[in-house]
Design goal:
Order of helices and strands: HHHEEHEHHEHHEH
Structural class: alpha+beta
Strand order of the largest sheet: 1-2-3
Radius of gyration: 32 Å
Helix content: 55-70%
Low-confidence stretches: 1-7
Strand content: 5-15%
Length: 217
């Protein structure tokens, strides 16, 4: 293939590249990039829809890496207004570095906002559950005949509140050891019994619990 590509992409004047193949551009592209470019050109000649690739290249004069949206489209001889059976491959390269960086920044901001909202929801659920547990404790004090049943319910509600409290500071799965320690502390406060949780290093590091499973546990 003979082609003329965007001078800024390779940082060399296009007249130095005319009449050459990508294999001749290893001085500017490097052998791997040249081979990848040649492969895209070959594929473009076999596809009526063309080929689209994203290419990362150093900036001019060794500047920061730039991202190029590169399209390869085969032009048939009839489209070029020439006779013969050989067409040409048109290569169009657009620098999309700033656009992609802006899109990534918007995505990161959306994720951060979602995480903040999720943490706020967990925080409010925790507070509400603790309020419910307090009401149950008051009812238990007024109704001694059902205090045993209500105390068990209080313990369960407080345990669930502890899980939501842990979710406030968590950006992913919960550590099972931390969950067990929180629940043990809740039960200890409710019944006044000392509870010791002994979790080995492997449990601390490897045993993680998805949020959907933490409440049932």
């Amino acid at each position: 293939h003979r082609c003329q590509t965007h001078a800024q992409l390779i940082h060399h004047k296009h007249f130095r590249m005319l009449g050459q193949c990508p294999a001749d551009w290893t001085e500017w592209l490097g052998p791997d990039e040249a081979a990848a470019l040649q492969a895209s050109l070959n594929l473009a000649t076999e596809s009526s829809d063309g080929v689209r690739r994203e290419i990362t290249r150093p900036g001019a004069d060794g500047g920061a890496v730039r991202l190029w949206d590169t399209r390869f489209v085969t032009l048939a001889p009839a489209e070029l207004g020439v006779d013969g059976d050989r067409g040409q491959v048109l290569v169009v390269a657009s620098d999309v570095t700033e656009q992609r960086a802006a899109a990534q920044a918007r995505f990161d901001a959306a994720i951060a906002q979602r995480e903040m909202l999720v943490k706020e929801v967990h925080h409010r659920i925790k507070n509400n559950l603790q309020g419910v547990a307090g009401l149950l404790q008051q009812a238990s004090a007024r109704r001694p005949e059902v205090s045993t049943i209500l105390s068990e319910a209080v313990s369960q509600v407080q345990a669930i509140a502890q899980v939501h409290g842990l979710q406030v500071g968590s950006g992913g799965p919960l550590q099972l050891a931390g969950l067990l320690s929180a629940i043990a502390g809740s039960v200890q406060r409710t019944f006044g019994h000392a509870i010791v949780v002994d979790a080995g290093g492997e449990v601390q590091a490897r045993w993680l619990l998805p949020e959907i499973e933490s409440i049932p546990v």
